């Protein structure tokens, strides 16, 4: 869980940097895509672990 939080923080920083500098808009888009992918992975993995513990 800690790794997912660290990754989300990194993607958030990349997204902010991408929006802050006009030439780096692509970095913001990549940051958003990676953030959504990480959230999806984390939620899915958490749901699977809950099912296995029951």
Describe the protein in words.
By secondary structure, the chain is mainly alpha-helical. It has one domain (2-53). 89% of the residues lie in helices and 0% in strands. The protein has two helices and no strands. Helix 1 (2-20) packs antiparallel against helix 2 (25-53). The model has no long low-confidence stretch (mean pLDDT 92).
Keywords:
mainly alpha, 2 helices, elongated, 54 residues
Largest sheet: none
Amount of helix: over 70%
Low-confidence stretches: none
Mean pLDDT: 92
Number of helices: 2
Number of domains: 1
Beta-strand percentage range: under 5%
- Strand and helix order: HH
The number of distinct β-strands equals: 0
> For the CA atoms, what is the radius of gyration?
14 Å
Cα separation of the termini: 19 Å
- Looking at the structure, what is the overall shape? elongated
- Secondary structure class reads mainly alpha
Question: What topology does this entry show?
Answer:
Layout: H1 2-20, H2 25-53
Helix pairs in contact: 1-2
Short summary of the structure?
The chain is mostly helical and 54 residues long. It has helices at 2-20, 25-53. It has one domain (2-53).
């Amino acid at each position: 869980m800690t790794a997912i939080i660290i990754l989300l923080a990194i993607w958030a920083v990349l997204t902010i940097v991408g929006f802050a500098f006009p030439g780096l808009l692509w970095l913001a888009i990549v940051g958003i895509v990676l953030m959504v992918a990480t959230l999806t992975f984390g939620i899915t993995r958490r749901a699977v672990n809950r099912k296995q513990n029951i």
